[in-house]
C-alpha cells in the first residue's frame, strides 16, 4: 500500500501520535514541569506563573483529545478491516458479522444474545469443535433435541409395552 497520497494532516497526526507516545515526549514533559517548578521562586509563585502551566496543559490536553481520537479511529478501522478479512477468509465463519460495527447498540445487543446462546449450545456439546456459527449450532442442537426426543419416546413406548404384558 502506498502512503504517498497521505495529506499533510495525516502525516502530522501520525508523527505526533508516535512522538507523544514516546519516552522522549514524556521526558520532555517532565523537564518542562521541573523547569516551571524551579522558576517558581523567581516569579514569587505569582498567579501569572501558575497561569502559564495551567493554560499550557489545558491547551495541550484539549488538542491531544482530538489527536488521540483520530489515532483511535484509524486503528479501529484497521482492526475492523483485518477482522473482516479473517472472517471472509475462514470457510466456516459466519459472514453475518462482517461490518457489525455499523449496527445500532440495540442490534449489537441482540447479536450478543445470539452469541450467548451459541455459548450455551457449546457447553452442552461434548466436542467444542461441533459448531461454528449460530445457524450450525442451532441445527446441531435441534438435531440432538429431536434425536433424544425420539429415543425418549421409544423408551417410553417400551416401558408402556412392559406394563401391558
Task: Name the descriptors.
about 160 residues; membrane; 5 helices; transmembrane; single chain
Give an account of the 3D structure:
- The chain is mainly alpha-helical.
- Helices cover 75% and strands 0% of the residues.
- It is built from five helices and no strands.
- Helix 1 crosses helix 3 (47-89).
- It holds the Pfam family Iron_permease.
Question: Could you give a quick summary of the protein structure above?
Answer:
The chain has 165 residues and is an all-alpha fold. Helix content is 75%, strand content 0%. The termini are far apart.
Low-confidence stretches: none
Question: What summary fits the major beta sheet?
Answer: none
Q: How big is the Rg?
A: 31 Å
Q: What class would the helix/strand composition place it in?
A: mainly alpha
Describe the SSE topology:
Blueprint: H1 8-20, H2 23-38, H3 47-89, H4 105-124, H5 134-164
Amino acid at each position: 500500500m502506498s502512503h504517498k497520497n497521505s495529506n499533510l494532516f495525516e502525516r502530522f497526526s501520525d508523527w505526533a501520535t508516535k512522538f507523544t507516545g514516546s519516552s522522549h515526549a514524556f521526558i520532555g514533559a517532565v523537564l518542562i514541569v521541573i523547569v516551571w517548578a524551579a522558576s517558581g521562586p523567581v516569579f514569587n509563585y505569582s498567579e501569572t506563573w501558575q497561569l502559564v502551566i495551567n493554560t499550557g496543559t489545558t491547551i495541550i490536553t484539549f488538542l491531544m483529545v482530538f489527536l488521540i481520537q483520530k489515532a483511535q479511529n484509524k486503528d479501529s478501522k484497521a482492526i475492523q478491516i483485518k477482522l473482516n478479512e479473517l472472517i471472509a477468509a475462514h470457510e466456516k465463519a459466519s459472514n453475518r458479522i462482517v461490518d457489525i460495527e455499523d449496527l445500532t447498540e440495540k442490534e449489537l445487543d441482540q447479536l450478543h444474545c445470539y452469541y450467548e446462546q451459541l455459548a450455551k449450545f457449546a457447553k452442552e456439546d461434548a466436542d467444542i469443535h461441533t459448531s461454528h456459527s449460530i445457524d450450525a449450532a442451532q441445527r446441531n442442537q435441534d438435531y440432538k433435541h429431536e434425536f433424544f426426543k425420539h429415543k425418549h419416546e421409544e423408551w417410553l413406548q417400551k416401558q408402556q409395552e412392559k406394563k401391558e404384558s
